């Protein structure tokens, strides 16, 4: 499941940006943000990837009661809300309002979208931080990298997401440069995806017991 979440995080910006151009002859330049792809030919992919990510995050160790699982539940719920409450329509998107936008208004829908997006990114940073905290306390095992390596690997992802959030806040405030929001979202998605791939792709976890405990084959 961790590998699946990591792959989705890495794939989201790549699929939206490049498939939009290749399959639907989209704008030669990327759109202003990942959220704006809701109003492109990649709407289904945008909704599907975020919804799948949300479900993964909600069901990930759902029975456990700890801080990182709480952050995972919050991130999952936020991921599902993001496509349910789409961002505002860009000027070039001559499409009708969604039923939800008609019901509560386009501005209110956009505000919920922005709030959910912010909570989602902050929750991702918390999850990667708790990954590093837990990995740093794990006993050393043969055939794997040290606990210190994984602690700083995940905390580096946390730092990158934090810097991306700061970048988003500052660039939205000053209104420059173009596509700054897309850049911040892309960096956050890849940092989060790398953390989950690193956590999930440990062979001794995926394929059985630690190496030193496996029986020797005759």
Task: Give structural notes.
By secondary structure, the protein is mainly alpha-helical. The protein has one domain (2-130, 159-209). The chain contains 8 helices and no strands. The chain has helices at 2-24, 43-59, 67-84, 99-104, 106-136, 147-174, 180-200, 203-206. Helix 1 packs antiparallel against helix 7 (180-200). The protein is globular. The relative contact order is 0.15. Residues 206-218 have low confidence and may be disordered.
SSE layout and pairings?
Elements: H1 2-24, H2 43-59, H3 67-84, H4 99-104, H5 106-136, H6 147-174, H7 180-200, H8 203-206
Task: Please supply descriptive tags for the structure shown above.
218 residues, disordered C terminus, mainly alpha
Kindly report the oligomeric state of this protein: single chain
> How large, in whole angstroms, is the Cα Rg?
19 Å
Unreliable stretches covering 5 or more consecutive residues: 206-218
Beta-strand portion reads under 5%
Report the helical percentage: 55-70%
In total, how many beta strands? Answer: 0
Quick recap of the structure?
This protein is 68% helix and 0% strand. The chain is mainly alpha-helical.
